[in-house]
Amino acid sequence: xxxxxxxxxxxxxxxxxxxxxxxxxxxxxxxxxxxxxxxxxxxxxxxxxxxxxxxxxxxxxxxxxxxxxxxxxxxxxxxxxxxxxxxxxxxxxxxxxxxxxxxxxxxxxxxxxxxxxxxxxxxxxxxxxxxxxxxxxxxxxxxxxxxxxxxxxxxxxxxxxxxxxxxxxxxxxxxxxxxxxxxxxxxxxxxxxxxxxxxxxxxxxxxxxxxxxxxxxxxxxxxxxxxxxxxxxxxxxxxxxxxxxxxxxxxxxxxxxxxxxxxxxxxxxxxxxxxxxxxxxxxxxxxxxxxxxxxxxxxxxxxxxxxxxxxxxxxxxxxxxxxxxxxxxxxxxxxxxxxxxxxxxxxxxxxxxxxxxxxxxxxxxxxxxxxxxxxxxxxxxxxxxxxxxxxxxxxxxxxxxxxxxxxxxxxxxxxxxxxxxxxxxxxxxxxxxxxxxxxxxxxxxxxxxxxxxxxxxxxxxxxxxxxxxxxxxxxxxxxxxxxxxxxxxxxxxxxxxxxxxxxxxxxxxxxxxxxxxxxxxxxxxxxxxxxxxxxxxxxxxxxxxxxxxxxxxxxxxxxxxxxxxxxxxxxxxxxxxxxxxxxxxxxxxxxxxxxxxxxxxxxxxxxxxxxxxxxxxxxxxxxxxxxxxxxxxxxxxxxxxxxxxxxxxxxxxxx
Length: 655
Known about the structure:
Layout: H1 10-21, H2 25-50, H3 58-76, H4 88-113, H5 128-163, E1 167-172, H6 176-187, E2 193-200, E3 209-210, E4 213-217, H7 222-229, E5 233-237, H8 238-243, H9 246-255, E6 258-263, E7 278-281, H10 301-304, E8 308-312, H11 317-326, E9 333-338, H12 341-352, E10 359-364, H13 370-380, E11 384-387, H14 394-399, H15 401-421, E12 426-432, H16 441-462, E13 470-476, E14 478-480, H17 486-495, E15 500-502, E16 508-509, E17 511-513, H18 514-527, E18 532-536, E19 542-543, H19 544-554, E20 565-567, E21 586-589, E22 595-599, H20 605-620, H21 625-635
Parallel strand pairs: 1-2, 1-5, 2-4, 5-6, 8-9, 8-11, 9-10, 11-12, 12-13, 13-18, 14-17, 15-20
Antiparallel strand pairs: 3-4, 6-7, 16-19, 18-22, 21-22
């Protein structure tokens, strides 16, 4: 009676518990054989009622049928499955077992009919009897399994619904993948989600029913659908998110419909039921419409075996992620160098608590201090150096060019020179796309650092140095979530209610994730032979204004309504579009179709080193900033300032 009123009684709960916990294989086997027995008896009685001559030898034929079907059932293990989770795989087993039993039964029937046994008495069979019996048996066993499965699904659905144990959800679309997801979630007791309907953009699908769930229109009545089905969650795939109309996204936010993205869901494997979907909140990375580049870790794993690795700027966004990824390899020792005490301590505690087997040593030091850095190289004797230490905030370095030169150029020079002196095998520098045709001091200092280490690499080749240090540069765009990224700034502004500030409506940038950037640094750095600048296909540039709108929607707000977006104007040294290659450069391919090597103009050490030396001397004297920038422009002719007080230096020689 409980089910009639939608209420689950204690007696029904007890019955369900018994069926769930006490249905071993022998009971399934017994039920299957009972179905064989009932099918045989029914068919026997039916035959006798329509035939003029009654059948004979009931006991022999009955025992023969039971024996044959039992043997094939054991041979095909049809009773090994969990009945309440029966799938097409189980039905195929039943069909194969029944076909085999029918063939064996028919063979015995032919043998008995045309062979004289029991003295002079033949046992005759009707040859249609085994065939019809097999059809009845397989139908009965099908019905048994799906009756049990239906009972459990109905009961668990009612239990979950009445106890509010599951989150009721809509599923976007009604295509194959969406239906597959709905079927999986409906049948999975452990899933926290209960699909109740599909939301479709195609009008010709609206009003239809799939697996008992209606297809609703996305065009209108969204709030009514949510109220009727008591739903506040919508599940969707990445491809659906990319193709979703902006208006529908806004309506979902206005109506309070939470969007969750399904990922890592392969086609449901009916053999073992593995590969469950991962359902998470949408991240800003999901809204960029870009596929991450996956690097081949196995290709570089042997490069780290037994090696001492040194990372400068280890407490920063890039340095810390490189440290995390390097700990996956079998290193000898990992040296973490940074001048920021607290973040370095946090990283050290994180890695120490991760059960890393090799030694990890944090060292507080500034890469611009040659004495301290020499001490580190003298004691640690690193075989690989990843140089990520740098100042990277464009407007700040525009105000402090001396500091930018001392750290970004001088620090790189100190670490690079020590790497050559102490026989480091590889030196990998983290650069930026702002070094291409730089328009600001920060980008120019990074380009100067690139030029120095490349000239140092060529100097070793010219002098035929035995086992030279291999200098490699990796150049990429903005990193999502890094300290210098706009994403953390936008998040803070959104959390405080806005406004979100964008320097220019048309400004664009390339983006990647921190793990992806660090994978590029590790792999490209370890596969280079020396002097290369690695770049890679970062997809389409992202409009910062659009990124701001997406992040506002992602927070559950409406752009320009709940949170305003304000244009503040380009900051000093900032340009609208970033480049990955200078105009005088071209590229050559690598083993990875997304990774390229820039054919940059070669830099002569004897020409570059004196200018670097003079630039550092002037920077350390703390003279006027224009003197430092003037030397940068002398070293890097393509450095043309934009939106900066240093633009006047570009016109000094015009007359």
